[in-house]
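User: Hi! I'm a student and our assignment asks us to look at how structure tokens line up with a sequence. Could you show me two examples?

Assistant: Happy to help. In each example below, the sequence comes first and the structure tokens follow. Example one:
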Amino acid sequence: MVGGFAAALAAGPVVLDGGLSNRLEADGHDLSDRLWSARLLMEGPEAVVAAHRAYFEAGAEVAITSSYQASFEGFALRGVGRATAERLLGLSVELARQAAEEADAEGPGGRRLWVAASVGPYGAVLADGSEYRGRYGLSEVELERFHRPRLEALVAAGPDVLAVETVPDADEARAVLRALRGLGVPAWLSYSVADGRTRAGQPLAEAFALAADADEVVAVGVNCCTPADADAAVAVAAAAGGKPVVVYPNSGERWDAGARAWVGGRTFRADRVERWVADGARLVGGCCRVGPAEIAELAGIVRGGA
């Protein structure tokens, strides 16, 4: 399985989807719950399938599942028991797979579609913006203990790859890298960054280099950051990690955790992908507030230059 996804990256750029939450909100779903899009695993799974399909139909080759904010601890705060939480984590993979099968059946042949199981940082379960700061006050052992059970639950559902994403802190990255050992599924490691550093303030070259010897990790890079920060980070990731690079920034707007609203202007442009690919990116797409229209444009540029 590792070879299959890694081989796809070696063959050329692979197009990721965009922001799942903004697609769901555009379809009229309220995601103000602390579980965010993971709430719909319980209350509206058909909406999750539809959102994934929208991106596949726009030209994405990878669907990132709705499990970013899903964890045993997070579900427990909603009164959901462990067995049900495990089933819901697995369901996130099944829904993305269903969307891939439906899109493949109705669309043109010859395009392999992949499912990436989203693994958000510990801060996401706190639902207070901590994933943009890191430094939770937990040890690496405690963070590994948090991540490993849900990684196992996601792997049991059969994703093609694990999307370890929006990691704000190199300390948490070390913990996740240990938790990934022996799972038998490839992963990418993607940091949330600002001004050339992780959100916790570590130099990016050092953060990316942590994965250099991790056989499970097939790509390193950034997501959930500004397009400008993504531009600067791609070459650093390519040089430091010795691996293909993953990059999927936000629209350029900024999340105000206190106001629980997006502020500022949009700076995402699909033609940025040309520079990303030239600098070593092999997984390219968008994150929060980047929708199917932008992914369709980005996919057109990637395939036009392939």
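Example two works the same way, sequence first and then tokens:
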Amino acid sequence: MTERHLTRDEAWALLESRGALLRGHFQYASGRHGELYIEKFRILQWPDVTEPLCRQIAERFRGLPTVVAGPTTGGVILAYETARQLGLRAIIAERKDDHGEEREFRRGFELGPGDRALVVDDVLTTGGSIREVLKAVTARGAEVAGVGVLVDRTGGTVDFGVPFFACLDVPAASWEASACPLCRDGVPLVVT
């Protein structure tokens, strides 16, 4: 990879060539259903793909954050690589309990007033994980410098109230389970 940014077509081709774009009938972590699934770990297993995508996020926010934060699990790799490129440290927000919707910084990660956190994540579908990390950041008295993701599936409809950047915009329809046309048509469901 060169030091230039990937074009949208190049990023899309990388996702396809590495088997990260799956088609079928999927139930996402949000509970919604859709016909396109982006398997983030088929991206994150390849440093030659992850590095240039994180570089794009890092360049967009250079000079703004003092720390990079991500949610477990995909955000661990992204926070690390983005922080590496910015010369900053990376911290991880973990779930408070197995079934909760709250995250916290544990394992001695320090964050507080004076810190400006760049929150990174892999695939944005509803924004739930990112909102949980944003809440954990502000609960420690830190500011949010922005949000960066590899893939935005929302078509730009989610607003976090801070600067936002997505390496790739892949708008894809999704439905509540009760309104899913794939369920109605009897297409087998894969729970992700």
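Here is something you could point out in your write-up. The CA atoms of residues 72 and 98 lie 12 Å apart.
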